[in-house]
Amino acid sequence: MFPHQRDESRNGRINEKWATTGTTDSNGPQGRMRARFLVEWVKTSWKDILAMAILGAASQAIYKAPLAAVRNFPITFSGSGDIVYPQFAYPERGWIISPVLSGILSALVPIAVILIAQTRIRSFWDANNAILGVLYALILGTLFQVIIKQLIGGFRPYFLDVCQPDPSRLTPSSNNTGLNHVGFHDIMYTVDVCTNPDKQALKNAMTSFPSGHSTAAFAGYVFLFLWMNAKLKVWSGHQTSFYWLALIMAPLLGATLMACALTIDQAHNWYDILAGSAIGTAMAFASYRVCYAAVWDWRYNHIPLTRHQIFDCTVGPASGYMERAVFIRKLGWGKRKRATRLGERRGHGRMSGSESPTFHTDNGATAGSSPYGERLRHPDPAMARGNTVPMERRADDMV
Question: Which stretches of sequence are listed as region Disordered (predicted)?
């Protein structure tokens, strides 16, 4: 028995219910089918939704908590009046892209592209997995970067402009940390010498590392890049068109522009941006692999995974809805062909023991000419059990 034939109880019950429903108006069986599907989707996804809400709230709480780290910064050489480390003395010019706008663009642009593409792909589970994957990457990336900000942090290039330090106001009673007027030539101080009364502005000026803008941009847009590569089969078994290659590079260009714009207004140092980009990229790759059968393997990376059915890449993808989960219509990709059985084709109710099933693979080719390099040995598990249409296929038909 193949791994993705094991979980028959739950999916079998769902398929049996759905196979008996008709397709009438929204208040009839079709409406009840949609309601039934929504209930099943909630049962499947509610834990993830709850976890995302909890982690999102935790990120906000951590971000608003007091800083755990106390950093020193240099002000002047003793007696000379020269400013040390002028890279922290840039003027505060404001943000080209605000943190809120950065988060919105990093989430909504990928989601919008995914939804627009569904007018052609028409796969509910692909849209579901892709949107959840974008949210996974953004939420996990945000959690990582706010924890690092709070525990590590770092000065923004405009820190001294926000701090407005005045060492003369320092008294023994105000030296709370004991880390002021210390170090070589006693030039190192803490925020105890800052004259700016805005505590939130001071905190923001000390949480430069890593860049939250870069984390969000690369989490959302790298995920979109991976998804577009899978749906357009840019890096696959055939030479693709140049314009598809240029198109999938657009999300990477967008992420790079959003991240590097922070160097124009001196909101971040280069290493802040590099660290945030690395975090976002890592979360995008991890989230994509959780939601899809592969990241780079062009044979499977377009296939959205499901909760109750294991995908066995050693056998190959089951026939059915998955062949539609691509955008291109080329070399057999994207052609919708249902699995057939010899017994059914010959007019018999069931296959005899000597008959072996034949069916179409994920891109519409026959099993004997599969682009996956292997002959698939069985039809869709749900169909093999006698259920007319699997839950995922029926859901896609409603899109």
Answer: 1-29, 339-399
Whether 159 contacts 190, CB under 8 Å: no
132 and 239 co-located in one domain? yes
Q: Please tell me whether residues 135 and 167 are part of one structural domain.
A: no
Q: Which residue range is the domain that position 193 belongs to? A: 68-95+158-207
Is the same domain home to 273 and 296?
yes
CA angle 279, 282, 286 (to 5 degrees): 140
86 and 218 fall within a common domain? no
Return the minimum-mean-pLDDT range out of 171-175, 245-249, 274-278: 171-175
Q: 109-150, pLDDT tens digit by residue?
A: 999 999 999 998 888 889 999 999 999 999 999 999 999 999
For residue 41, give the H/E element and its range.
helix 29-64
Q: Are 302 and 325 in contact (CB under 8 A)?
A: yes
191 & 300 share domain:
no
In the chain the first and final C-alpha atoms are separated, in Å, by 32
- 213 lies in the same domain as 197: no
Residue 202 in any domain: the answer is yes
Evaluated on CA atoms 326, 332, 338, 341, the torsion sign reads negative
Cα–Cα dist 387/389, whole Å: 6
Residues 186 and 282 placed together within one structural domain of the fold: no
Residue with tokens 């995922």: 392
Q: Give the whole-angstrom CA distance, residue 267 versus residue 158.
A: 7
How confident is the model over 287-303, as pLDDT tens digits?
999 999 999 988 889 98
Query: What is the tens place of the pLDDT at every residue in 315-346?
Result: 655 554 456 688 887 777 776 544 444 444 44
Q: Which residues lie across from 399 on neighbouring strands?
A: none
